[in-house]
């Protein structure tokens, strides 16, 4: 399995759902009152794991990684539902699973 390419638009939508905001006056991204960055955190590779856990994963979610050959599956149990992502890269598999949770949650809020 090849690593999935994640478009810039998908990454921005994901991080916006996590609480990041574009701050035009400072020409940078901001999270809360204390964190600012020129670029959003990564969503692929091992360096993506820390920010994905920090900003994307709910405290009451259960997470499990499974290795199947060269493929990593990330499974998340949250709000009595299962979400999964699969890729050869653990960071990408976590992103894909979290994206399903967060995009679904933000779409539900928009439809209300």
Gross CATH architecture: 2-Layer Sandwich
The Rg value, from CA coordinates, equals: 14 Å
| SSE succession | HEEEHEEEH
Name the strands of the widest sheet in spatial order. Answer: 1-2-3
For the largest beta-sheet, the strand count, sense and barrel status come to: 3 strands, antiparallel
Shape category: globular
Sheet/helix structural class: alpha+beta
Please report the distance between the alpha carbons of the first and last residues.
38 Å
Number of distinct helices: 3
Describe this structure in words.
The chain starts with 7 loop residues before the first helix and ends with a helix. It has one domain: 2-Layer Sandwich (Double Stranded RNA Binding Domain). The chain is of the alpha+beta class. The mean pLDDT is about 90. Strands 1-2-3 form a 3-stranded antiparallel β-sheet. The chain has helices at about 10-20, 50-55, 90-110, and strands at about 20-25, 30, 35, 60-70, 70-80, 80-85. Helix 1 packs across helix 3.
In short:
By secondary structure, this protein is of the alpha+beta class.
Q: How are the elements arranged and paired?
A:
Blueprint: H1 8-18, E1 20-23, E2 28-31, E3 35-37, H2 49-56, E4 62-68, E5 71-78, E6 81-87, H3 90-111
């Amino acid at each position: 399995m090849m690593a999935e390419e994640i478009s810039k638009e998908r990454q921005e939508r994901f991080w916006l759902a996590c609480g990041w905001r574009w701050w035009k006056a400072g020409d940078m991204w901001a999270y809360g009152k204390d964190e600012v960055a020129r670029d959003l955190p990564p969503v692929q590779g091992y360096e993506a794991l820390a920010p994905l856990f920090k900003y994307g994963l709910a405290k009451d979610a259960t997470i499990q990684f499974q290795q199947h050959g060269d493929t990593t599956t990330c499974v998340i149990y949250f709000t009595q539902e299962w979400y999964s992502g699969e890729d050869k890269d653990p960071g990408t598999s976590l992103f894909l699973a979290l994206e399903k949770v967060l995009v679904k949650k933000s779409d539900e809020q928009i439809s209300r």
